[in-house]
Amino acid sequence: xxxxxxxxxxxxxxxxxxxxxxxxxxxxxxxxxxxxxxxxxxxxxxxxxxxxxxxxxxxxxxxxxxxxxxxxxxxxxxxxxxxxxxxxxxxxxxxxxxxxxxxxxxxxxxxxxxxxxxxxxxxxxxxxxxxxxxxxxxxxxxxxxxxxxxxxxxxxxxxxxxxxxxxxxxxxxxxxxxxxxxxxxxxxxxxxxxxxxxxxxxxxxxxxxxxxxxxxxxxxxxx
Amino acid sequence: xxxxxxxxxxxxxxxxxxxxxxxxxxxxxxxxxxxxxxxxxxxxxxxxxxxxxxxxxxxxxxxxxxxxxxxxxxxxxxxxxxxxxxxxxxxxxxxxxxxxxxxxxxxxxxxxxxxxxxxxxxxxxxxxxxxxxxxxxxxxxxxxxxxxxxxxxxxxxxxxxxxxxxxxxxxxxxxxxxxxxxxxxxxxxxxxxxxxxxxxxxxxxxxxxxxxxxxxxxxxxxx
Lengths: 223, 223
Known about the structure:
2 copies of one chain form a homodimer. By secondary structure, chain A is α/β, with parallel strands linked by helices. Chain A has helices at residues 12-23, 40-53, 66-69, 98-113, 135-147, 166-176, 198-209; strands spanning 3-7, 27-34, 57-62, 117-119, 156-158. The radius of gyration of chain A is 17 Å and the shape is globular. In chain A, α1 packs across α6 and α6 (166-176) packs across α7 (198-209). The first copy, chain A, has a single domain, classed as Rossmann fold, CATH 3.40.50. Helix content of chain A is 37%, strand content 11%.
């Protein structure tokens, strides 16, 4: 059976990408990263809940060193998570080369597990503005991974959501039966999603445009 | 002042590459990885000793998860380190995509520190047979890093040793005053270098061909 490493943060996008991998007939190895992000515990719960619905083998990888690198509101508690609305440019929540590190670790696990694909739920068009979500980066990284591993290792990076808008992802996830009630997107460490960080805003906008109800509770919902 | 991240394992090659960075006028940020390798403590001592001679800022990054990935004699104690001589092909000491992970983390730190170069002491020609030491991989990885980081981030991966033979590295290091007595190359966890693992064999062959005396003690020296 063909096998895929699915990078699964516990958010809506990575959950949907993992469900696409399952639909496409892959045996799923779910991979989660703890990188001292503010929402580490809540994300880990979302990861475990979703991975269990997929019957996936699980890897939880500790990248706690991100706290020492800092330089992002997601891992440095001295930098506030913006809640005033999405601004142009690279946001302060950008974590330096995060997806590069995630994909490199995924490549090592793929080579060990004999997987032929890595699924990652990056979105380029209607996204966060992170440089490590660009298609050109992902394509180059796929090439790097295949050059830097054994000749018999061939790994494809699959980005089924890269060209979608958030509302398309909500619609698709809903049609495919992705358990959206188990997902977590908020950047804040609160028990209930804040509703006002960039990630909550993008998610809520997606549900609104898709004319569907988000099953998770929010502290505030900005219209 | 221009700044470089130098990946410094504590071995002869990475020490020489770091000294070349210093000679070329870079302010040095020395980066070491603890990845549950057998010789973790000994390597860390070598790193600290050498980085101190360079007056470098130091980062020690914990990648302990390599133990969970395994698949290499360097991190899995159930796989023996070969001592019978260098065999053709990818050796069992190959750690899946290790340099990909190292370079990705170095890229994140370079972006944070505003460094414009990453120095890595990989050797392609006269080397260990690891796929992540190939020039084609390094060139692709440089491209990936620049695509996956901020537009204003420009990072060059410098591999000053890639085309050298081990004896050339010994000669160069000796001429440049690299403190070779502080370096550690052995794959085994012994106090004294074993002299018979692939890494010790390559090093000893290098000194022999360079007609120089290796300043570190060995348990056995195979002629």
